[in-house]
Amino acid sequence: xxxxxxxxxxxxxxxxxxxxxxxxxxxxxxxxxxxxxxxxxxxxxxxxxxxxxxxxxxxxxxxxxxxxxxxxxxxxxxxxxxxxxxxxxxxxxxxxxxxxxxxxxxxxxxxxxxxxxx
Length: 118
Hints:
This protein is mainly β and about 120 residues long. It has strands at about 1-5, 20, 45, 50-55, 55-60, 65-70, 75, 85-90, 90-100, 105-115.
């Protein structure tokens, strides 16, 4: 079942998984020649159905493999890698955006720390 969402606030929080239809409209009428056709899909940021698995701490000089979990059409990490897996050797926040078969984009991130390890 698709849920229809109508809101006057330019911010929307989605707290459950499911299919949604988002309808946007301006306060005043827009002339037809200046209107833009709606884009398919939308982006949801946060842990909305996509998870990253893998170690979040590594020893200096070591590495970890992060994995974007789930059955998605495509994957893109903030490093530019377009794959389900990401090899990391440096401390930082790693973000992945996945695209569903329906065109929705989901984004989540994880922070990896590097420890001195003796």
